[in-house]
Structures are given as structure tokens and as C-alpha cells.
Amino acid sequence: MSEPLTSHAELLRVLDHLAAGRQGALDRLFQVLAIPSVSTDPAYHAACVDAAEWCASSLREIGFQARVEKTRGKPMVVGHWHGSGSPLRVLFYGHYDVQPPDPLAEWTAPPFAPRLAQDPQAGEVIVARGASDDNGQVMTFLEACRSWLAVHGRLPVDVTVLLEGEEESGSPSLPSFLDNYGEELKADICLVCDTGQLDADTPAITAFLRGLAFSEITVTGPSRDLHSGIYGGPATYAGEGGSPAVGCGASIPIVESFRSRLGMDSLLVGFALDDDRIHAPNEKYNVKSFTKGARSWARLLDELGAIDGNLKA
Predict the structure, then answer these.
(1) What is the CATH number assigned to the segment(s) 8-188+250-260+273-305?
(2) Is 8's pLDDT higher than 80?
(3) Which carries the bigger pLDDT value, residue 216 or residue 8?
(4) What are the structural domain ranges in the chain?
(5) Are the beta carbons of 164 and 174 closer than 8 angstroms?
(6) Model confidence pLDDT, tens digit, residues 77-116
(7) Whether the predicted model's global pTM rises above the 0.90 cut
């Protein structure tokens, strides 16, 4: 068995590769952001298939075995990379589908024409539907894997990737998919990048999701749509060792399914911010969040590769 990659010098080479490849990473992100993968509108079904194919092709490009798996609805993307020598296997989950861009009149530029802009508070930002939820976040992990594989030819741990196409529409195809492919997906832990930071400078682990409650009321409120349970809603507390952890509203259906059906715990690490205008016109993702998110995943993979044993032990 090969020794895991754990030396500090080897990690620094990966981080240097990420820094040098910043423009290429943005170019790749802009490619997927240009695909209108709206899962809630049947008119965009072909675009969702295109997005799934793009994700599978990107995984294969960096060294994964990847395929697009049909479901009754939008396809799933499944990718595997094995050969780390680590006793651990992780599952990374994200979703390629996005919310509808309506109302279009409130966008300052077409929602599927990604662009860089200057924000008075955040500095350089990426503006497009899906920039923060969730394609920008998914790409932080894929770019970390790309750099690890480019520099060292292997990852610190074995990795399976699952990218869903119906997260924004309630994951209706998920139960049957897990019935058919659950055993293939089982890992020591699931990594999810679909949550937020504590603030612009402080990443956080989301420890729980409060879920959703549905009702019909009439209110007056903010000037733009806000993501359910995220904006202004995190309950913060000190995690083990004093690290920030948050609990927030909303729901990621697959996290509960991983726990109840596959017996896997999930680590929710995301790089979104309250002001990203998720689900609203002019959705944005800070370039700083994108680049530092990829570096964070590179470090986390390195830390996982240094674990010599079972995470549940």
C-alpha cells in the first residue's frame, strides 16, 4: 500500500498550482455557469442533461472514471477516483441544477452570461445564476482535486463524486437512485459544499439544517429574494476546539438520506455568504470565496489523507 500524501511541502505545491491556475479555474466555472440548468422547468431539461455531461467530462478530464446516470427526472453524475493508498474513502456531493432566473428584468446582465464585476463591499465577484448555489461551490472541490492530481498524480484519499440535477426541485428521483446505486456510493464520510461561511473571512462547518415549513402569508420585506433559512439565520456556536460551527434553515434532502439509508455522516463545508443573492436576481459569488474555497478543500483532503484508520472508530 502506498503512503498517503501528507507532507507540508507536497501540500504547498498543490496550493501553488491552484494560485497559478486561477484564470483557468474561472474559465471552467464560466463554462458551466453558461448552461441554463433549471430543474424546475421542463423547458430546460435538455440544458440539465448538457450540464450533467459537462460535469462528467470535467471529471474524466482530471482523471476520474465518470458517467451520467439516467433517472426518471434529471440525470445524476457519478465519478470515482481510487488509488490513494489511504484507508479512507470520501463521497463529495453537490448539485448542478439551479433556480429559475426570474424576474429577468431585475438582472443587470443576462443570468447565464457569467461575468466578473466589482462589488463595493466584496470586491471582485462572479455574477450569474448558480454562481454561489451551487456550481461555484462544486467547482471549488473539483479544482482542488484537479491540482492534487496535476501535481502528484493522485489524491490523498479515494474519492467518489455525486452531482445531482434535482436538488432545487425536491430531489424526486433520489430515493430510487439510492435504491439502485447506494452501495456504490457508500463511503466513510460525505463532504457537502452547499452551505455558507460564518462571515466573509471565516469559513464554518454547518452542523445541522432546520428544514423547511410551508405556509401562505402576505408580508413586506427585503428588496430581493433571499435563500430560505440562510440569510440572517445562522445559529452559531463553538465547535470542538473552538472552531466556528453554524446551524441554519433550509434543507439539503440528500444529507438526511445519506444518514438514514446509507449510514453516512456528512460534513457540510461551504463558502457562500448571506449577501450572495442566492435564488434572487444578480446572484454573485465572491472570487475570494471561490479561490480560497478551492484552497480549503485542498487542505482538507490533505488532512483526511493523514488519518490512519476509521473515521468512526
Answers:
(1) 3.40.630.10
(2) yes
(3) 8
(4) 8-188+250-260+273-305
(5) yes
(6) 999 999 999 999 999 999 999 999 999 999 999 999 999 9
(7) no
